[in-house]
């Protein structure tokens, strides 16, 4: 199994209870977490990245143990080497595009090593954002921001990539174009990819296994092909 | 023309206020970050104690400083017995008094500024392999800087106008510990209205200038 998740977490505060109980295991390298807002998809993604510590359970990716409550294992996010593309992209507003992409490769003090600088330039070229290198994120378009976020996440060669609603911040006409772009980039990656979405169109383009969420639980799991056919039927 | 008697208090005030602000700002920023990040038991109490100098009468603060740092104080007696030094009735004492009074202004502004930083940006840095120290210096601090600088400016203005605690700790020794606000008091008591006018004008101008700078810093860039 490339990705196996079995986690539970309870939130009780604010007068409203929420129980996350997510279990799935996949052997392919693409998974879509699909379901309505508030069903626990993003919480699962955050747990995969280590930004949230579940109450119980375990998380394994490509044979690496990230979390196991019984064994007392919790790898902090900085040691997991998992790329995360946030829903709003979370680009650092005070840094230029180049500095954003270089962030994961930069030492605390001092300059980038020549190899790291080359790597950053390579990523800027690969994602077609070299001409924006000295711009701040506020000055570039939504589609460009997404590419910067991807380049930043992939610059330090992560062991897996997580995408949280990667198209929801974009205008609808732009989505189709960006989906095609992203498909091209992702096709070249051989790392586990996990995408969260509530949009059936995203599921169709992404492929892989589809894990359906509802009210904090995993409802069922299908291959994308089956999902697509069932959606056509509904339509 | 500027009265020759106005110059020493002005220079002393600038020196005391700058040093006091610097002395208060560094711990205030780090404690603000700590209080914002970690939810430890008694956090609200610590928060209240760190904000206390903003609401307590300055004379009470002066009294506390004497209790702690006076020649017979908790730490002060050790300093006096071991090294023969004391901050009482020295300009360094004025610095301590002003920094205690200025501290909460930096602390509160910094805390609000850190709370205003989008948590997702810090999380993004975490997933990119940054340590908590790196996140502080490369993400949180630069993004909170505007609010912190505004707080530092307010603290500087407050330190320049410090009166009560300074009087209790450092006294009112002309040429030694007499800052502008103390000099105004003395000039008025002595009936020297010309000098008082000048001093009042000086300190008012300095504070207006600082407040204008704060407003410029706080206002978001167009």
From TrEMBL, chain A:
Pfam families: ABC_tran. Residues 2-234 form the ABC transporter domain. Keywords: ATP-binding, Nucleotide-binding, Transport. One of its GO terms (molecular function) is ATP binding. The keyword Transport applies. InterPro entries: AAA+_ATPase, ABC_SmlMolc_Importer, ABC_transporter-like_ATP-bd, ABC_transporter-like_CS, P-loop_NTPase. PANTHER family: SPERMIDINE/PUTRESCINE IMPORT ATP-BINDING PROTEIN POTA, SPERMIDINE_PUTRESCINE IMPORT ATP-BINDING PROTEIN POTA. This is ATP-binding cassette domain-containing protein. The lineage of its organism: Bacteria, Pseudomonadati, Thermodesulfobacteriota, Desulfovibrionia, Desulfovibrionales.
Automatic annotation (TrEMBL), chain B:
The chain crosses the membrane at residues 12-33, 45-66, 86-107, 135-157, 199-218. GO terms for cellular component: plasma membrane. Residues 10-214 form the ABC transmembrane type-1 domain. It is a multi-pass membrane protein. Keywords: Cell membrane, Membrane, Molybdenum, Transmembrane, Transmembrane helix, Transport. InterPro entries: MetI-like, MetI-like_sf, ModB_ABC. PROSITE patterns: ABC_TM1 (PS50928). SUPFAM superfamilies: MetI-like. It is found in: Cell membrane. One of its GO terms (molecular function) is molybdate ion transmembrane transporter activity. The keyword Transmembrane helix applies. It comes from the Bacteria. Belongs to the binding-protein-dependent transport system permease family. CysTW subfamily. Part of the binding-protein-dependent transport system for molybdenum; probably responsible for the translocation of the substrate across the membrane. This is Molybdenum transport system permease. It comes from Solidesulfovibrio aerotolerans.
């Amino acid at each position: 199994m490339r990705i196996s998740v079995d986690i539970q977490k309870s939130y009780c505060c604010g007068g409203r209870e929420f129980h996350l109980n997510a279990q799935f295991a996949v052997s392919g390298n693409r998974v879509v977490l699909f379901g309505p807002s508030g069903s626990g998809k993003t919480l699962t993604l955050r747990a995969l990245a280590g930004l949230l510590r579940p109450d119980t359970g375990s998380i394994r990716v490509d044979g690496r143990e990230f979390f196991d409550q019984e064994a007392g294992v919790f790898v902090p996010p900085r040691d997991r080497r998992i790329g995360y593309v946030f829903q709003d992209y979370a680009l650092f507003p005070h840094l230029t595009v180049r500095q954003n992409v270089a962030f994961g490769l930069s030492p605390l003090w001092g300059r980038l090593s020549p190899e790291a600088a080359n790597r950053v330039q390579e990523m800027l070229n690969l994602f077609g954002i070299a001409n924006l290198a000295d711009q701040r994120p506020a000055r570039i378009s939504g589609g460009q921001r997404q590419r910067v976020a991807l380049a930043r996440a992939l610059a330090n060669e992560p062991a897996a990539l997580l995408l949280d609603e990667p198209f929801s911040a974009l205008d609808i006409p732009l989505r189709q174009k960006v989906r095609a772009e992203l498909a091209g980039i992702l096709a070249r990656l051989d790392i586990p990819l996990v995408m969260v979405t509530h949009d059936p169109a995203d599921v169709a383009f992404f492929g892989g296994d589809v894990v359906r969420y509802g009210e904090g639980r995993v409802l069922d799991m299908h291959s994308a092909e089956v999902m697509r056919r069932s959606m056509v039927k509904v339509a | 023309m500027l009265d020759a008697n106005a110059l020493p208090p002005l220079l002393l005030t600038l020196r005391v206020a700058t040093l006091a602000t610097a002395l208060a700002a560094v711990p205030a920023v780090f404690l603000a970050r700590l209080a914002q990040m970690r939810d430890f038991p008694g956090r609200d109490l610590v928060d209240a104690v760190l904000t206390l100098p903003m609401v307590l009468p300055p004379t009470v603060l002066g009294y506390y400083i004497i209790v702690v740092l006076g020649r017979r104080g908790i730490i002060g007696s050790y300093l006096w017995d071991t090294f023969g030094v004391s901050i009482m009735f020295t300009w360094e004492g004025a610095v301590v008094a002003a920094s205690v009074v200025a501290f909460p202004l930096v602390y509160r502004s910094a805390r609000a500024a850190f709370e205003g930083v989008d948590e997702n940006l810090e999380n993004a840095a975490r997933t990119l392999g940054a340590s908590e120290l790196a996140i502080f210096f490369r993400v949180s601090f630069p993004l909170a800087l505007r609010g912190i600088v505004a707080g530092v400016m307010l603290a500087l203005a407050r330190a320049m106008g410090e009166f009560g605690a300074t009087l209790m700790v450092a006294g009112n020794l002309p040429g030694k510990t007499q800052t502008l606000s103390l000099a105004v008091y003395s000039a008025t008591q002595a009936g020297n209205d010309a000098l008082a006018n000048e001093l009042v004008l000086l300190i008012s101008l300095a504070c207006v200038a600082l407040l204008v700078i704060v407003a410029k810093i706080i206002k978001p860039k167009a």
